[in-house]
Every structure is written in structure tokens, then in C-alpha cells.
Amino acid sequence: MDRLASSLTISAAALAGVATALPAAAQFAKPEDAIKYRKSAMMLEAAHLGRIFAMPNGTVPFDAKTVAENAQILAAVSQWQFSGFLSGSEKGETRAKPEAWSEADKFHEMASKGQDDVLRLDAAAKTGNLDAIKAAVGPVGQSCKACHDAYRKE
User: Fold this and answer.
1) Domain count, the chain
2) Please, are residues 64 and 128 in contact by the beta-carbon 8 Å criterion?
3) Spans in the chain with pLDDT lower than 50
4) How large is the C-alpha radius of gyration of the chain?
5) Is 121 exposed, middle or buried (0-12, 13-18, 19+ CB in 10 A)?
6) Which end of the chain has fewer CB atoms surrounding its CB within 10 Å, N or C?
7) Which domain holds residue 60?
8) Helix, coil or strand: residue 60
């Protein structure tokens, strides 16, 4: 099995596992569980964003199918991570700043904008058009950076 197929299989398995666990996500047993959950979701996001971002900037050859597959996974994962920002999970082994909780409305607004940008990237990826993908990639990166600058410890 080639590396892409293997990555997609692993990602699909992870997605299936998380999807079946979603009803329990709101009931984390411990704050540490919520932290692990959101870190896992963000790790998946970073992996799939990296695969997408490498193509429009020319680091790897453009493959519309790969972009579409990764954008679809990213669109799902981007909806999950913020359910792990529960009260009480601001303490512990986390890179999230306390402001993610004290400025919850602003934080959720930024998160929602980022999710919308990811959905637009997913729609652009489905067209297979490199110019549309390039146009959609920038706002995703900007949303991620803005949220990390405001709410992630360095």
C-alpha cells in the first residue's frame, strides 16, 4: 500500500473512531481527556493542512484528488476540536492560553470563521481547480494564524 493510501486509511480509521465517540465528547471524564481530544484533532488538522498547503505553493506536484481527500477530512476535523475546550480544561498540559476561556465569545467567533474558511477550501478542492484552491488556502492559513497568535502559548 503506498504512503498516501496508508495515510488515508489511518485517517479514515481515526475519523471513524472519533465519529463514534462524538456523543461522549461532551462528557469527558477528566479535563485531561478534553485536552488530549483537542490536541489530537489539531494534530490531524495540521497533518492534512500540510498536505494541502504543499501543493499550491509548489513544494509537491499538484494532485487534485489528494487535495480533495485531505480537504474533506479537514472539513470534518475542524468541526470537532473546539468541543474539547471545556471549562476546567484550561489547566493542565495545554498550549491554550487562559484567554480562550475568558474571551470565549471572541474565541468561538474566530473558531467559527476558521471553520467557514475550511469549508470554502473543501468546496474549492472539490472543483479540482488549482487557482480556486490557491484562493481558498490563504484565508485558512490566516484564520489558523490569527487564532494561534491570540490563543496559543508559544
Assistant:
1) 1
2) yes
3) 1, 13, 20-21, 23-25
4) 16
5) buried
6) C
7) 3-151
8) coil
